[in-house]
Amino acid sequence: MSLSDQTLNAAEREKVQRFLATNTPFIGPDWDLLRDHSASPRDACEAQVLGGAFNADEFDDIRASLQATLDESFDHTQNMIVSPAARFGDMTLCIFTASGDLSLASTRGVMSFCANAYYPIKYVRKYFENDPSVGLREGDCFIFNDPFYGGLHSPDQGSFLPIFHEGQLVAWAGIGLHEGENGAKDPGGMGPNIESPWDEGLKMPPFRFAENYLVRRDIMNFLQNSCRDRRLMGADLKVKLAACMRIEKRLKELIKEHGKDVLVGGLRHNIETLSAEAQRRVNEIPEGTARGQIFLDTTMREDVLIRFHCAVTAKGGKLIIDMRGCAPQFANRPINAPYSSIRCGVLMALAYFIWPDIPHTPALLAPIEIITDPEGLVSATPDVPTALNMQPLFKVISLLHAAIVRLTFGTPLKYANPMAPWFNQVVSFMYGGITQHTEAVGNICGDLNGFPGGAKWNDDGEHSLCPSFAVKVDIGEAEDVEEDLPFVYLVAKRLLLDNVGFGKFRGGGGYEFAISNRYSDFWGFAAIGGGSKFSTTPGIFGGYGCSTYPVCRIKNVDVFEAIKRAPERFQPSMIYLMNEQPFENATYDTHRAALPFEMAAKGEVYLQSQGAGGGYGDVLDRDPERVMKDLSERVVSADTAREIFKIVFDEATLAVDIAGTARARQQERSARMKRGIPYAEFVKQWNRDAPPPGVPYFGGWGTTDFKLFVDGKLSDTDRPRPVYMPDPKDVRIAQLEAQLEAQLHALGQGK
Amino acid sequence: MDVTITEYLAVDLDSERWKCRSCGHLLGSARADYKHGLLVHARNPAEIHKPMLDPTKYAYTYCPDPNWCAMLEFYCPHCGTMMEVEYTVPGHPPICDIELDLDDLKRKWLKWQAEGIDLAPAKLAKTPAATKPAACGHNHGQRGKA
Ligand SMILES: [Zn+2]
Asked: For residue A349, what are the domain limits?
């Protein structure tokens, strides 16, 4: 503007300013808003109420009423919604201050859906409210799903509605949920095949889809035409609006009861008191640093080793979460996570595992600082796909959870049972196709929610209880699924033997399941997990972690016909079916837990097992009777009882030989002392400057001083560009061509 | 004074040394990584996570790939208690997972003692009653609800 300043008069300058202000060619994400999770300053009304005399008990009443409103609306919505995931509970309802800060959320569901929703609301306020082409009116409702505008990943959708009182904006109602199908490259809104942000289907920055409390038919038509599942998209627009309207109705009743000012003050008070409480709790954590790392073994298309490292430092009233030293971004793989997604993981770890006793809202993040590399797998840019950013997010939950347990275990001020990390992989099948009801669908099975729990300091972990990212959701009923969808569960919710994190207290076990398309001529499955080569969930304080989990397939068979012919050949067990291979001419194989969408003929079988929660403490400290109970319940095998827990017992009666067990355990302790090498000596022979040759390693190598490796090679820059992976099919073709060339050469027919 | 840090580790604040909670032996300076005072063994993952699927038939068997995944077991040199298991990449230096600020730890423990807080290991704190501090410092019209 310096030229204009010199050559234009005041009126001309004003005209230029007005032109520039109203003719921005592209607004784009607001990076400051995205990164800044602190509450806006008190607005005039809040300042007036909270700056004067107020009744904290009345605020308490308001908070209780709002909580009841949100939980009641959650139940209503869960019964109306079409999205299968939301019917299992993967949803959140919440209420915001006029400025857009989240005041309170429903107790059930998955808070991540609304944890970043301050951002699209503040975005609307900043860019659209005063824009005459958009504006903001009573009865408006907005929608968003773009991860760079407050969404988590593209299959999730959020909506929010402004609440006015006598023309003044006083609050916002919001809902967020996993819708699934959104017109992405493969059915269900996410999948291994996604290679660019433009493969991810609908990408919605916040925009208005309803006016005057009515869903706009033209917009609904557009959105329905943009995805495979028209019923889901259409119906759920209305359900999201209805959910927000219900919260609005109740809020207006509360205004009638308490007055507008008290209500506005109460909404703000929730945020300030929770922030203060989080700060108080952080102040009590002994200062120091806890570190951890977890490795993910897939990009979803190929086996690679990706490091997630986290150093958590309590210092000066701050909890600093340093994620530097993670892998770079992948240009054409969907596992990149925007900063906002990592922040969700941080909030989930705090709310679900560290401070489960207080309301779960982003106000808990007040004393939290998150440091990432400027661009990387945990601070992705909009140029890369992010549909499966749960992969980094779930690792952050485990890393932060374990770090805080390490920092606070011995302190008197804890608000949850210290425990080993919860399982952290995505085990479930995604599906898509035409159902027996002739509907086009694409979504994910509720098995996703069946993560086993970590072992606690004083008890075993729970079997397949709930995911690490939500504490009050469901895995759904097989019968309900079979009624809606054309596949059946051949094996359902059966605990896999020896699939627990071993320890003094063992992690929870995961269940195996097998599904097969029975009724559809046009059907397929995909899977989006990792951890088939590297254990992703560690134990703690001497406990072991989970195993590694593939997808198993039995193709070129109609299992229903095979069972009809020879029922005795079927057993509901993955281990039996895969090892015994009872169906003739079928092909059996295992695949990394990320399976790109593929067609599944009638009767072909897809099998998986949920993982295991981390174990707690030394296996030799486990009460022998607990081992025998696990043995009798088929949680562990007799071999495991003998070889890992070192129990001497009678296999027929399960009676423990107490003296024999004590002797066996003492022998094992002596054996450890014999085979263990003093640390200084060990690291001399163990430590290497680089990852093992042949391992495609991505991320920092080292403990505090990282050297960055990309595809196993030392990077010449600490800010590498997004890594572009070759198509695995091209890689395979090149291998086969090389083999062919070598054989032709041997025959004297080479080039 | 012993201060509990993990299931198996305490710090003796007087000598500033790590201590095994199973056998009571002192292990090394608490201003350094506790792992420095322990024995280490790189365990073959297949011994703990046995293959469930036939390895002659399948590439992925529920057993971690030993070329990618190593398991470091850390033992007390005096009693053989396994204090930690670290899943790592072969050749990666062990992680220092706890680094204490001993001076702050001393300050906090003296403060808690003075406040009469029960310092029994892993004792859960009750949610303090004061979860609603009035932001302005006022708390008018308190009706004394539970
Ligand atoms: Zn010891």
From this structure: 278-416+694-725
Write out the two tokens for A726: 């070759």
State the nearest Cα–Cα gap between B1 and chain A, in angstroms: 13
* Mutual angle of helices A260-283 and A56-80, in 10-degree steps: 90
Question: Least CB-CB distance to B39: which of A289, A290, A673?
Answer: A673
The contacts of residue A605 (CB under 8 Å, 6+ apart) are A490, A514, A515, A516, A553, A554, A557, A559, A577
Domain co-membership, A228 together with A109? yes
- Pair of tokens at residue A706: 């990282």
Q: What is the pLDDT of residue A3?
A: 52
Does residue A302 sit in the same domain as residue A249? Answer: no
CB contact under 8 A, A542 and B98: no
Cα of B103 vs centre of ligand 1, distance in Å, is 25
User: How far away is chain A from the Cα of B16, in angstroms, using its nearest Cα?
Assistant: 15
- Cβ atoms A16, A4 nearer than 8 A: yes
Whether A372 and A475 share a structural domain: no
pLDDT tens profile A521-572: 999 999 999 999 999 999 999 999 999 999 999 999 999 999 999 999 999 9
Three-state secondary-structure class, residue A300: coil
Are residues A206 and A353 both part of a single domain?
no
Report strand pairing: B9-12 vs B2-4: antiparallel
Query: Contact at 8 Å (CB) between A535 and A291?
Result: no
Per-residue pLDDT of A696-736, as tens digits, reads 999 999 988 899 999 999 999 878 889 999 999 999 999 99
How many domains, chain A?
Answer: 3
Confirm whether A236 is domain-assigned.
yes
- What residues does each domain of chain B span? 2-101
pLDDT tens, position by position, A494-507: 999 999 999 999 99
**Phi, then psi, of A96 in degrees rounded to 5:** -120, 155
Contacts of B92 in chain A (CB under 8 A): 687-688, 691, 701
Terminal-residue alpha carbon distance, chain A: 65
Calculate how close chain A gets to B15, using CA atoms only, in Å: 18
For B28, the closest chain A residue by CA position comes to A679
Q: Please report the pLDDT score of residue B139 as a whole number.
A: 39
Nearest to A251 by CA among A162, A328, A186: A162
Quote the mean pLDDT of chain A.
Answer: 95
Of A286, A548, A592, the CB nearest to B100: A286
Same domain, yes or no: A386 and A441: no
Same domain, A102 and A176: yes
**Inter-chain contact A291–B135, Cβ cutoff 8 Å?**
no
Q: Which residues of A are less than 8 Å from B137 in CB distance?
A: none
Q: Do residue A458 and residue B122 have CB atoms under 8 angstroms apart? A: yes
Closest CA to A467 of A454, A451, A447, A455: A451
